[in-house]
Amino acid sequence: MPRVSVIIPVYNGQEYVAATLETVFAQTFRDFEVIVIDDGSTDRTEAILDRFCGKITLLKNSHKGPASSRNLGLEASHGSLVAFLDADDLWLPKKLERQVSIASSHPEYGIITTNYAKFDETGIIEPSSADQRPPIQSGYVLEELLFDNWIGTSCVMARRECFDKVGKFADDSIALGKDDWNMWMRIAAHYPVYYLDEVLVHYRVHPQSFSHQNQEKVLAGWLAQLDWFEDSIPQLRARHKLMQEARFSYCWGMGWHNLHELNLHGARGKLRRALHYSPFSVKAWIALGITHLPLFALRLIKSTAKAVRRKPR
User: Which of 32, 48, 116, 186 would bridge with 166, disulfide CB 3.0–4.6 Å?
Assistant: First the structure.
């Protein structure tokens, strides 16, 4: 039986899936199986996967989404450890080796996750995800994950017993596109998480990926997940104040992003919603006031701030 099962869902991944798989087969740790789930691709994905015949187990899904595909992979897998990889991300060669070593020496941890770098077609654009966040600690991190899902799916190695305990990935009627966050929260409610501060994954960023999303829908998904967490995770049921702080945090963060992008209408709506959860937030009131300044004035302020940052000292 393999020690590690690698599960890769893919949909229309003809551009990237071969390169992704090559990084799996370049791992220094070799005791693994690879399960790829083709989620109803309509491009050349199947033909590309045929090149890896004999190296992978290929399953078919009828375009039900990544959560359904990961569940199919879990059902077909045999390893005591399960690693997930998105079909456009890349692993560095020692990723599995380092995680298996930690899993062996620290059997109490349910998830072992790593740092990652972001890249696009131009190369590395963010060398370390940890640089954008407060220091990340290992341990029981349920509260930290509530405010920020810093666990990248392609970074995760989890023990099979975690899924035996908490169940499958939630479908979209529950997870609303946040099936990874939903799963890590459910596991973190029962197990400590080990954070390995080494960049062992390269996470692909597609051009304008965030700006092209329906941000109202994204925020609604976050807030709906918070409602579900409060109802379904025992450690959070009696902590309404904490949950309100989390709701404020997501509304504030997206409102501030909209303001930075000079999307004043979007910023006003999200900042007002933030104030619904925290009516006495000074920073939210100030930001809301800024949204009522003339657009030309905001553009001038933004350009001036950029010039000041670029000015040599």
Answer: 186
